[in-house]
Amino acid sequence: MRRLQLWRTVLGLVAWVGLMLTYKAVISADGVKAVADDRLDQSWSSVLVLVCTLPVVVGGFVAAARGGLRRVYLRRALRPLGAVVAIMASMGTSALAMAPELAGLRNAVGLPGKIVIAVLCLWSIGFALYGIGLSLVHVFRTADIHEVVPPVLAGVLVWEMALLDLVTGAYPQVPAGVRAVFVLGAPVTVTALSWWEMRRLRRHHGLTVRGALGR
């Protein structure tokens, strides 16, 4: 499953690059930078949507569980929530350190202090970018709660992102038909993989959503 998910991600990236080149979104160095920034913004938006979706899906999952399973799942949910807090804190740290309102403080600490702040900013940005990638691949470690949670959460997330792309009019330079196929391709393929993952969990490990909820 992990190999298939990796291949789906790679093929999706290749398709995205092909789409940008075909419809001349990249025609100069400035175009390359704009497209790269747009892709980074999309990844960050995915994380933000996931951050908002995670407590809703996990909360519903925990609330639907019976008996002592609720306490078990609540305790396990601390790890995914910790991952959320770590990423948000790393992004907030770099933004706060570079805020114009803190220019006086940066000047007060002198050159050594500025070097320390710069190193911390670079580290926090690298941590955040690395965390964004891992979070999208591993769905914020929600398998620590239960193995059936990641495919369910991934399915919800990817359809939310597709709806967001449609509402915001993503890829305006691409013809409407091609844009619809491209935008819907991600949720359809992720949903198919999630369904197959759930099927394999049931067949090979006897794990189902119903069983996970103690029903």
Verbal overview:
The protein has 215 residues and is mainly α. The chain is built from 9 helices and no strands. Helix 2 crosses helix 6 (110-138). The chain is flat, with a radius of gyration of 20 Å. The mean pLDDT is 77.
Tell me briefly what this model is.
The protein is an all-alpha fold and 215 residues long.
DSSP summary, beta strand count: 0
Provide the β-strand percentage band.
Answer: under 5%
> Which regions are unreliable across 5 or more consecutive residues at pLDDT < 50?
none
Task: Determine the mean pLDDT.
Answer: 77
How large, in whole angstroms, is the Cα Rg? 20 Å
Assign a percent range to the helix content: over 70%
Overall 3D form: flat
| Biggest sheet statistics | none
Alpha-carbon distance between the two ends: 27 Å
> In sequence order, what are the helices and strands, one letter per element?
HHHHHHHHH
Number of helices: 9
* Structure class: mainly alpha
